[in-house]
UniProtKB/TrEMBL annotation:
Keyword Plastid: no
Assigned keywords, A-Z: Antibiotic resistance, ATP-binding, Nucleotide-binding, Transport
Domain ABC transporter: 7-232
PANTHER family assigned: ABC TRANSPORTER ATP-BINDING PROTEIN, ABC TRANSPORTER ATP-BINDING PROTEIN NATA
Keyword Transport: yes
InterPro entries: AAA+_ATPase, ABC_transporter-like_ATP-bd, ABC_transporter-like_CS, ABC_transporter_ATP-binding, P-loop_NTPase
One function term, GO molecular function aspect: ATP binding
Protein name: ABC transporter ATP-binding protein
Organism of origin: Plantactinospora alkalitolerans
């Protein structure tokens, strides 16, 4: 396998009884890349990621993660992979600090637990028992446990669900720091702004098939999509035009109005607009 690849998947298939969850997925993720998997509920994201994590067996296909088939992974491979599943975050009567220190003991070269608690913004809660944490704080603890082993590859399944906006921004910073330090990151998310803010490339999966993989700015031919220009007419009505050359249109409008164009807006389709179009919504 190419050493530059953290993940290589070919022809991946998985069915649960009559339900085909993953239907022939081909995918590569480079080392150091931040890759976001997007798709509606039930699209097959979690199944795909769980197969990559070695938590679920596939029916068919070739899978290599850090050069190893996860179906045959050993403990040494597991220490190289960090995993943040959808919601755990409770450890009976243990405190945050106790849990993070305890997990550090599972890894050969862990990060400093107190530093990790700080990085995920839980310093004030270090002595709190985990069952007393809020939902967002439990997610932060999950993230702490995912990164305590200093993984080469980090899987994050809907990592910021339940985060307040400030916590999400802090989390994004943390992910950017990890990526800058060379960690490969694969995340699933329902937040398109999160994918746009973090991912080098996004993959859209629907009905178990990967329908497109591209940089967020290029997905669904977004860069060539028409831009909507709207303005207010002298009678106060809002007029709207779709244009491939919005700058020229704004210039014409400025000339027509002899200066400032009333109520001018210029909007390119968001990643969410493109994504919804791709998965069949209008
Ligand atoms: N353990 C299971 N047993 C049977 N069917 C399952 C199981 N896990 C998932 N499925 C089915 O497989 C399909 C894909 O599910 P999966 O959890 O991979 O989707 P997802 O994209 O992660 O969805 P979500 O965004 O809701 O988390 C769905 O139709 C789901 O109902």
């Amino acid at each position: 396998m190419d050493d530059q690849l953290a993940i290589s998947v070919r022809g991946l298939r998985k069915a649960y009884g009559d339900t085909t969850a993953v239907d022939g997925v081909d995918l590569t993720v480079s080392r150091g890349e931040v890759f976001a998997l997007l798709g509606p509920n039930g699209a097959g994201k979690t199944t795909t990621v769980e197969i990559l994590e070695g938590y679920r067996r596939r029916d068919a296909g070739e899978v290599s993660v850090l050069g190893i088939d996860p179906d045959h992974a050993d403990d040494q491979w597991r220490t190289r992979v960090g995993i943040v599943l959808q919601g755990t975050g409770e450890f009976d009567d243990l405190t945050v600090a106790e849990v993070v220190h305890h997990f550090a003991g599972f890894y050969p070269a862990p990060d400093d637990p107190d530093k990790v608690i700080d990085r995920v913004g839980l310093v004030d809660k270090a002595k709190s028992r985990t069952h007393a944490l809020s939902g967002g704080q439990k997610r932060r603890l999950d993230v702490a446990l995912g990164i305590i082993g200093r993984p080469e590859l980090l899987f994050l399944d809907e990592p910021t669900t339940g985060f307040d906006p400030e916590a999400r921004r802090e989390f994004w910073e943390l992910i950017r720091d990890l990526a800058a330090a060379g960690t490969t990151i694969v995340l699933t998310t329902h937040y398109l702004d999160e994918a746009e803010a973090l991912a080098d490339r996004v993959g859209v999966i629907t009905g178990g098939r990967l329908v497109e993989v591209a940089a967020p700015a290029r997905l669904g031919n977004r860069e060539n999509a028409l831009t909507t220009v709207s303005w207010r007419t002298p009678t106060g009505e809002v007029e709207r035009a779709e244009s491939a050359t919005p700058t020229a249109l704004v210039g014409e409008l400025a000339a027509r109005f002899g200066g400032e164009v009333p109520g001018l807006t210029v909007t390119r389709p968001s990643l969410e607009d493109i994504y919804l179009r791709m998965i069949g919504h209008r």
